[in-house]
Design brief:
The chain is built from 13 helices and 9 strands. It has about 325 residues and is α/β, with parallel strands linked by helices. The chain binds iron/sulfur cluster (SF4) (2 copies). One iron/sulfur cluster (SF4) binds near residues 246, 262 and 264.
């Protein structure tokens, strides 16, 4: 058991995220003791009372490994990403938000001003008779209070600073987090820098035990609209399952529980855009009946009718990856 300053330093930090990645680390249970034997937790606001000034005081590169979860939404998030990059020899994008933007990245469909207008003025669930909206600074008798400024869009960690490894998942599965800790503590070998770790290189379908036949979907159902057969592929039953376009590694958690994969492990190896890959896969699944004799307009309308049974295209196909998708730049240009 190694103790004291001989242990390499570990940092963990959360930016724009929900806290689920911290829960994934806590899910290591007694394995956390082994982590504590291997590392000194030098900075982790949800575990130890170390301040930013403590981090700033460390020599550059003094932290062996920093796990960063959450996307970069504010100036503060960006400043912390830069500081941790400077102080760490290995920086890991931990979880879907840091990796591909995840659900907070769906906010990129609107500008910060539109979100503020919608949340505080148009659809506010609390009384706001004075039409107060958030400000970056507020004067109180004790001085000036500052709120971090929102960036124009949420970005991923690697869109801001160089990153050595990416661990996908919303949140990463505990057995994959344990695998990561075995690697960073030197028990197992680290793959080359730039790799996605704690995941496979195929798709969720490769891990799925459900029977697959010919996929035909003449309409899609939401999971609560239909009783499904637990032994058959969900897509064949009209339930949109993102398994075809999602990296394996979770152990096929959701389809195993009769819930469609929503895509949290992100794009598989070699795929540049998860949503586009799913749309491309669906092209061979949609069943419009006999097309013989139909005009191209009629065929298009039938395809449209099937697609229109999906409730939310972007929130379905790019639920976890919008901020890192081919659409990312387009959305900003359109504002
Ligand atoms: S699409 Fe979903 S249910 Fe079908 S094989 Fe793939 S992971 Fe399993
Ligand atoms: S099945 Fe899909 S959504 Fe569920 S944990 Fe695995 S990758 Fe994530």
């Amino acid at each position: 058991m190694r103790r004291g300053s001989a242990r390499p330093k570990l940092a963990m930090y959360w930016a724009a995220s929900c806290g689920g990645c911290e829960m994934a680390i806590l899910s290591l249970d007694e394995r956390l003791f082994a982590l504590n034997d291997s590392f000194e937790v030098a900075f982790c606001p949800c575990l130890v009372d170390a301040k930013i000034a403590d981090l700033e005081a460390l020599p550059d590169g003094d932290i062996a490994v920093a796990l960063f979860n959450g996307g970069i939404r504010t100036n503060d998030d960006r400043a912390m990403a830069s500081l941790l990059r400077q102080k760490s020899r290995t920086l890991i994008a931990f979880g879907s938000c840091a990796h591909e933007g995840c659900i907070p990245g769906l906010a990129n469909l609107r500008s910060p001003q539109e979100h503020i207008r919608s949340s505080f003025l148009e659809n506010s669930t609390t009384a706001n008779a004075r039409r107060i909206t958030p400000k970056s600074s507020t004067q109180v008798k004790e001085g000036t209070l500052h709120l971090p400024l929102w960036n124009d869009r949420l970005t991923t960690l690697a869109q801001n600073v160089p990153v050595e490894y990416f661990l996908p998942g919303c949140p990463p599965e505990p057995h994959r987090v344990a695998e990561l800790f075995r690697m960073i503590s030197g028990e197992d070998e680290m793959p080359p820098a730039g790799s996605v770790i704690g995941a496979g290189s195929s798709t969720v379908c490769a891990e799925c035990p459900r029977e697959r036949g010919r996929k035909n979907a003449s309409r899609f159902y939401r999971i609560h609209e239909k009783t499904t057969d637990p032994s058959l592929c969900l897509i064949e039953q009209g339930i949109l399952c993102m398994g075809i376009a999602t990296r394996d590694g979770c152990g096929c958690r959701c389809p195993a529980a009769n819930i469609p994969c929503s895509g949290c492990y992100g794009r598989p190896e070699g795929v540049s855009d998860q949503g586009a890959a799913m749309i491309s896969a669906l092209a061979s699944v949609i069943d419009i009946g006999h097309a013989e004799g139909l005009s191209s307009r009629e065929i298009y309308d039938r395809i449209d009718a099937v697609i229109n049974t999906l409730p939310d295209y972007v929130g379905t196909f790019w639920k976890y990856s919008l901020a890192d998708s081919l659409l990312a730049g387009l959305l900003v240009r359109q504002r």
